[in-house]
Amino acid sequence: MVLAQEPDLSMFGDDPFWLIVIKAVACFAFLMICVLISIVMERKVLGWMQLRIGPNRHGPWGMLQSLADGVKLMLKEDIIVKGADKALYVLAPILAAIPAFMAIAVIPFGPKDDPVSIFGTRTVLQLTDLPVALLYVLATSAIAVYGTVLAGWASNSTYPLLGGVRATAQIISYEVAMGLSFAAVFLYSGSMSTSAIVEAQDDRWFMILLPVSFLIYMVSMVGEAHRPPFDMPESEGDLVGGYLTEYSSIKFAFFMLSEYIHTVTVSALMVTLFLGGWRAPAPLSLWEGANTGWWPLLWFTAKLVCVIFFFMWIRASLPRVRYDQFMALGWKILIPIALVWLMLVATVRAMQNEDYDFQDIVLWVSGGVLTILLLSFVADFFRDRSERRHEEAGGAGEPGAEGTQEPFDPTAGGYPVPPLPGQTLPPVPRRPSRTHREKAAAGAAAESEGHTQGREGSDDA
């Protein structure tokens, strides 16, 4: 097997200007319609899963609820915080929303070799494509971080600043795992072009060929889009609304719009990279005309709706995790697994390019996996022995151990602060449990009975 050649992108860039404008407006309209559908769909799905009534007032069956929400937000009073940096305060929602629109430009809705006719002109169902299209997607998602962190900083308030910092750390950490999952797709398809990646899934979707990358991206896209159970940047119980606490009216609507557009964008990326893109699912793929004309747009939209439904499903099913658990999942689990999987995929591709037999590839890969598991087992074994010896020694000799930790007053400076390494918080007074109260009452009764018997004995004497 030889390495894939550079994809042919000569069919892009030859459209007349009016057709480019029509396709750009169509992509924008597609995103906005998906957002409107997602808002109503989320409330309907959550109502169905949680056995309660969803929206049923605005429009038939509540279908105009998202439109009513948009009108309500536009008519609300627009407030600018007195101490805010006004220029950055206004710019932040725009920076959060615009990059979310940009990624849809390289998503293919149909095959590049079978253009459709729009007003008598043959064109591809894709706005444009690049040899490094997925790097362009990663770049646009990275720009959205500026909108989040500037919203928290420009508000000149404590809680939005904390929300902006948490959101920035979350986006950066999960972008690393997402990029590593992309790298495995690059290696297997031989291209970073989105149209070439879809063409490489002719025989089998990458969800089946690269299951680990698929699972890593599935978790990373939820964290990247700030969706439950990973919605810590705006968690109401912790941060009173997060980085958008001080925003209202249309600025608040921009942040909500960017979140839903980002959800649609990462869902479209999942369809493109792992679910065959515009290709018809089996058994519809057996029909020769399934992937011609306008039919691919229907298959792409159906897959996109299924992925968006997955977002609603996990919101209704899973509780919000703690922030430290969420960051540990990204840095300690997803990224190491993605690195090991990427090395495995690179090894398999290199052996395929060198014309190794399938049995030899399986033997070498299995041997490598067993070696890694054995080394991990040995490391865990010695680490457990070291921890056991440390516990038997009473924890002396290491800073931060129980025997050397210092008492710590979290409110000594006027504001509560977390402890540093080597410091411990004072014990929290807790209300005694019922069992403890019963034992204390029984002890008091026995003690009073003993005193009574003692007095009776002294009276008899």
From TrEMBL:
Biased composition (Pro residues): 416-430
Biased composition (Basic and acidic residues): 448-461
Annotated spans, Disordered: 389-461
Name of the featured protein: NADH-quinone oxidoreductase subunit H
EC number: 7.1.1.-
HAMAP family named in the record: NDH1_NuoH
Any single Pfam family the record assigns to this protein: NADHdh
Task of the protein: NDH-1 shuttles electrons from NADH, via FMN and iron-sulfur (Fe-S) centers, to quinones in the respiratory chain. The immediate electron acceptor for the enzyme in this species is believed to be ubiquinone. Couples the redox reaction to proton translocation (for every two electrons transferred, four hydrogen ions are translocated across the cytoplasmic membrane), and thus conserves the redox energy in a proton gradient. This subunit may bind ubiquinone.
Membrane topology: Multi-pass membrane protein
Quaternary structure, from the entry: NDH-1 is composed of 14 different subunits. Subunits NuoA, H, J, K, L, M, N constitute the membrane sector of the complex.
Keywords on record: Cell membrane, Membrane, NAD, Oxidoreductase, Quinone, Translocase, Transmembrane, Transmembrane helix, Ubiquinone
Reaction it catalyzes: a quinone + NADH + 5 H(+)(in) = a quinol + NAD(+) + 4 H(+)(out)
An annotated Gene Ontology molecular function: NADH dehydrogenase (quinone) (non-electrogenic) activity
InterPro entries for the chain: NADH_UbQ_OxRdtase_su1/FPO, NADH_UbQ_OxRdtase_su1_CS
